Amino acid sequence: MSRAKEAFGVYVHWPFCLSKCPYCDFNSHVRHAAIDEARFAAAFAREIATTAARAPGREVTSIFLGGGTPSLMQPATVGAVLDAIGRHWHVADDVEVTLEANPTSVEATRFAGYRVAGVNRVSLGVQALDDVSLKTLGRLHSAREALDAVAIARRSFDRYSFDLIYARPDQTPAMWAGELRHAIDEAAEHLSLYQLTIEEGTPFFGLHQAGKLKTPDEAVARALYDVTQETCDKFGLPAYEISNHARRGAECRHNLVYWRGEEYAGIGPGAHGRLDIDGIRHATATEKRPEAWLMRVETNGHGVVTDDLLNSEERADEFLLMGLRLAEGIDPERYTALSGRPLDPRRIALLREEGAITVDVTGRLRVTSSGFPVLDAVVADLAA
């Protein structure tokens, strides 16, 4: 297959937020002084140039502006970043360009500016459609503001998505089913639905440890997961990945790059990348602290602090871990090609017997609906 036919994504990380959500362990930072966007735009362009020199000749099929809160950027800054990508790589005519936005930073004029800059898809961090939950989650917007933002996205872009968090404190399956039906009415083609996880190092972790934040027990969490699958299936947004639901053909092409084990460049503070250089897969990561990243780029042309060479086993394990998240599953022959050894047929047979996986007539291996809630165990068993 020629290089131009393969998917190649560019992830750009804007690390700033208006406030830090208590459940968030992403690389996001609050700054009370004004951000020097021109300086950051120049640094993004410099890192793009350096990365393109290491990985030339790619055709960019998707670009994802994530964060942080990229919708705090001026449209001109977004335009400068997209222009830099276009200068150093060929960009596909049908490129998908996604920008993450928070409802608090959505204005119709700004969205129109992003569209002119080249963005053609937005992903909104709605997180909940009731005000009590939004307050618990530390969000700065109301449910009404969130729905207004979705309406602006609908008017501004042909493609849009939004996120919701479930398994929230005091949430019942019946409450979630109603909220989800409301969300599906508002979502044209795509929803990302994540179970609330309590991550170490976040304010929620301390509250949870102290017994001041009670999340649903395992049985209720499983019921909430089942409601998610049943409701989305019923209304035409089946899961194509363990936490992502879309109408057929409306999947996020950029995220499919990750899950299918394809190449992507990571640009900006704390961004990760996977690049194939001279036949070897490089796992890159940049400096997380925004100002330190900025100085590194201005001095060295890039902010990369980790550049690991993945051996065949590591690459195969990553392919398995990511690929089995997808409803389409994996081709075991690709695992064999990457690792130099096939998956253990005895383990496959046992997992099939337990109903955790299926293997179709073409040999494609998929995790079943009963296997997805224990996906980590299925992956560990196959990789052993």
UniProtKB/TrEMBL annotation:
Residues covered by the Radical SAM core domain: 2-238
Protein's recorded name: Heme chaperone HemW
Stored SMART domains: Elp3
Matching Pfam families: HemN_C, Radical_SAM
Residue ranges the record marks as coiled coil: none
Keywords: 4Fe-4S, Chaperone, Cytoplasm, Heme, Iron, Iron-sulfur, Metal-binding, S-adenosyl-L-methionine
Cofactor(s) demanded: [4Fe-4S] cluster
Alphabetized SUPFAM superfamilies for the sequence: Radical SAM enzymes
GO cellular component: cytoplasm
Family, as annotated: Belongs to the anaerobic coproporphyrinogen-III oxidase family. HemW subfamily.
Function: Probably acts as a heme chaperone, transferring heme to an unknown acceptor. Binds one molecule of heme per monomer, possibly covalently. Binds 1 [4Fe-4S] cluster. The cluster is coordinated with 3 cysteines and an exchangeable S-adenosyl-L-methionine.
Biological process annotations from GO: porphyrin-containing compound biosynthetic process
Main location: cytoplasm
Location(s) in or outside the cell: Cytoplasm
NCBIfam families tied to this protein: hemN_rel
Keyword set includes Chaperone: yes
Gene3D superfamilies given in the database record: Aldolase class I
GO molecular-function terms, A-Z: 4 iron, 4 sulfur cluster binding; coproporphyrinogen oxidase activity; metal ion binding
Highest taxon of source: Bacteria
